[in-house]
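name: query_chain
kind: protein
chains: 1
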Amino acid sequence: MEIDQPVASGSASDVSLRQKVVIAEKALLESGDNRTLARRSRKDALQVLCQDRHLDDVGDKIELASRLINWVRTVSSAVQERTMI
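structure:
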């Protein structure tokens, strides 16, 4: 059997965190402002999003949100450059 993503241990806190991560990821994609993202998301969810993208996961919510917004902008710019070629 092939597994694409890590299997949750099944504890309620793991399930709750994954749900918060999904919400934070949606807010990340919709937000262009690190303060808005930080307000809408829990710190542990932002840390998981940073870890998933191999970004530094240390700092307050504003710092984490800023890193994630910059990552999205960088990826978006790279995609736009490829499509223009």
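note: Residues 13 and 37 are 22 Å apart (CA to CA).
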